[in-house]
């Protein structure tokens, strides 16, 4: 079974609380989403391998470290996942970015793919799938499936808010994919929205509602 890591850093808790507030406007919502993603990047990358190297300071030579292992890739799920990209890139500027477009069918609540563009060497990268909300788990699970079909073997899912139902789906369908959350909320309501949640992350990011 995959791990579920819920981050309890005070800065993340503080910023998530402001993010939830219905009076937080789109500009501040976008800024907070980027800031939370940046803070989450520290925990998500905690176990990246490093190589020991020699570096020369103005005073002497000493040992240092550089990131080793696979190159990194960010794959936001459109459209709300876009809000997390800049924050992650501020910490991981060399990462390549792919995109997977999914929408939830209002009748079946199942994910439907409408776009997929990935780096050519995606299979050789450690991949972080980005989506602010892990609700039913359908979109995240489908995106992970697409990545596995392209040969990816090292995948982590990074979401700001998660519901137990979505976590259970991803863990069942992808027990090899660890899940990183800024908050694990109570449950889904009858419309498959996370409660207490923060509403529709895409609409709040882009001011479309």
Q: How would you describe this structure to a colleague?
A:
The protein has 209 residues and is an alpha/beta fold. The chain has six helices and 13 strands. The strands form three sheets. Strands 1, 4, 5, 6, 7, 8, 9, 10 and 11 form a nine-stranded mixed beta sheet that branches. A two-stranded antiparallel sheet has the order 2-3.
List segments where confidence is low: pLDDT < 50 over at least 5 consecutive residues.
Answer: none
Biggest beta sheet attributes: 9 strands, mixed
What structural class results from the helix and strand content?
alpha/beta
Described by the principal axes of the CA atoms, the overall outline is globular
- Helix fraction by DSSP (H/I, runs of at least 4): 25-40%
Instruction: Report the strand count.
Output: 13
| N- and C-termini, Cα separation | 38 Å
Strand content: 25-35%
Query: Number of DSSP helices?
Result: 6
Q: How much is the average pLDDT?
A: 93
Query: SSE order, as H and E?
Result: EHHEEEHEEEEEHEHEEEH
**Any idea what the radius of gyration is?**
18 Å
């Amino acid at each position: 079974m995959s791990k579920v890591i819920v981050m309890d850093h005070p800065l993340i808790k503080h910023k998530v609380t402001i993010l939830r507030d219905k009076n937080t406007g789109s500009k501040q919502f976008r800024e907070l989403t980027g800031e939370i993603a940046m803070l989450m990047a520290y925990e998500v990358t905690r176990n990246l391998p490093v190589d020991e190297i020699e570096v020369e300071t103005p005073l002497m030579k000493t040992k240092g470290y550089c990131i080793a292992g696979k190159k990194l890739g960010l794959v936001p799920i459109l459209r709300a996942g876009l809000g997390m990209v800049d924050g992650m890139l501020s910490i991981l500027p060399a990462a390549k970015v792919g995109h997977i477009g999914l929408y939830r069918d209002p009748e079946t609540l199942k994910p439907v793919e409408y776009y997929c563009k990935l780096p050519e060497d995606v299979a050789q990268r450690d991949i972080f799938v980005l989506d602010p909300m892990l609700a039913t788990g359908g979109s995240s699970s489908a995106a992970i499936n697409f990545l596995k079909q392209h040969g990816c073997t090292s995948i982590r899912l990074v979401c700001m808010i998660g519901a137990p139902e979505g976590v259970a789906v991803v863990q069942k369908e992808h027990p090899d994919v660890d899940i990183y959350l800024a908050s694990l909320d109570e449950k889904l309501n009858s419309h498959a929205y996370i409660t207490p949640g923060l509403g529709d992350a895409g609409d709040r990011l882009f001011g479309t509602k």
